[in-house]
Amino acid sequence: PAGQLAMLAGLYGVLLLASWGRWMTPIADSGRELDLPRRILEGEMLYRDVHYLYPPLAPYLKALLYRLFGIDLAVLQVAGVIGSLLLVGMLWWIGRRVMSEKAATLATAVVIVLCVFKPTGNMISPYSYAGLCGAVFSLAALVACLRHLDAGGWRWRLAAAIFTGLAVLSKQEFGMAAALVVAATIVNSHWGSPWRIGRNLVLAGMPAMIATMLVAGYFVTKVGGETLIKDCHLLYTNLPASMVRYNAQRTGLDHPLLSLAQLVGGGTVIGLLLVTITLLSGWRPVLRCRLWLLLGSFASVALVIGAVSGGRWDGSPLRFMPVVLLAMMITAWRASRQGDEHSRRLFVVSVYALAILARVALRVPSGGAFGNLFLPCSLLLFCFLLIDLFPQMLRRDGGTALASARAERITRWAILLLIAVTTVVYGVRYHRLYTVRIDTPHGHFLAPRSTGPALRDALAFIESQTEPGDPIAVLPEGSELAFLTNRRMPLRHQIFIPGLMLPADEVRAASLLGSMPVKYVLIVNRPMREFGAESFGTDYYTQLGETIRRDYHHLVTFGETTSPDALIGDPRFFIHVLERDAGPATSR
After folding, report:
1. What percent of the chain is modeled with pLDDT above 70?
2. Is the N-terminal amide bond of 476 cis, ω within 30° of 0?
3. Crossing angle of helices 401-433/256-281, nearest 10°?
4. Cα–Cα distances in Å, from 185 out to 142, 336, 352?
């Protein structure tokens, strides 16, 4: 174990250094993550004064970190490092409970590469710290459940219940996954005794329910239930069409037949992998012709699905993971009924992995900004299938010990090669994409070369033309410009997603721009196509857009184009700076 831990630490360290300072992708979500806890620290009330779609634990935890260590980008990035290390450590421990030590180490290494450090979405500056908190707490609940299976006792049940409560207060889907894994553990442990199952479910659910009710009660008294449920959608109720559309894209329900085709395509890729391993292992030579025919069939189906999908499928086998996990869960349940302890643990881990994929059920991603927090346990079990389970199946199905050992060795070396190559590719990609150094009062980082020059110029403008504490409005997204320069984003919404603002909110926002007054409005080229509209102020929130066009004039444009007529959706990134026509100035 010491050598394996050293390997994982070395891999983590190499990727940490290769990506150093290149973790933040500006504009998309980062402003909310950085600026919201500062606003809380300065006395604003979550939900009432600052709109937020998730439970309150993460922003208040970040506000506490700001209070203890200062308001700086590095504070949250160190928290991201700690959170990712906790996740990796727990995952390695979970892996050792259900697979061989070598397989657990390789699987954890895959998670480090694809989930922690993938350039399109990392855990150091994740798109949502609420998601990182939820992932850590829900995995901690899974660890407590596995310890309960091993040792029994009320302490581990209590720990699982507490971690479930923390996951619920972090992000809804992670709380649900933690609750399901606790319920699955109780049902598996007390199958055949409905009374004990019911009693333990109630006892396990009470800490989470009490904590959630206390927190909810506090915010209901301060903010009001209508704001929490109808405006901030904490129970996924009253969702606007834009959010329904976005969630449908993530789950794959926007084009279900295409999503099912991609799921089948993922299954054919897994079939290709397994047949290739079988051929290379020398398993039952008399069936070699049939295996080649099967290989050709899988390849043909995969090519057809790739053509039909029109480039929307990246060929990832992970699309098929919900089916793999369901099969593992059913098989492990049946074996656990025969008293097999390993199967009991595998059943519980499979339940968690399947539950956490519910948000992306028909379109499982391959890591990245939206997949890195959902995939760790799935990748763990995928490696278990390839390294441990499949070689055992070959041996049981008429193969020799030599063929089984050869299949395991082939898979391990292939995964090692994948890890090595991907590490090099990601290191090169970080250094090629993130090249623009940005230094601000609240943090230093390297920005993407596509957006970095415009961000650097806009930040310099803000610092030269306004004073610390002055209000500026950054629309439709990008409030990190206010955070990094120690200016204030005065509007309740920090991300102007189509349909998310109520009509009354839009009227108040327009009125606030005049009453503050806000001298500068920055319009960022951030199209909202994934939400069904593109251009802020033109395609959606037209009343607010009309107010800005009436009261402000174009001053300067920073970015790949300097044209004042550039529209949101232009392939070139830009930031328009608009200055107020009249009213008392707030700049020096």
Report:
1. 99
2. yes
3. 130
4. 9, 12, 10
